[in-house]
Amino acid sequence: MIDGVSVRELDSSLDATGQSVALWNGEGLPGSLFRSSFRTVFPGIVEAWFSRERARERITCLEGTIKLVLCDRRDGSATSGEVMEIFLGEYRFREVIVPPGVLRGWKAVGGRNALIFQALEGEESAPQFFTLEEADVPYDWEIVMQ
Question: What is the CATH number that goes with domain 6-13+31-128?
Answer without folding.
Answer: 2.60.120.10
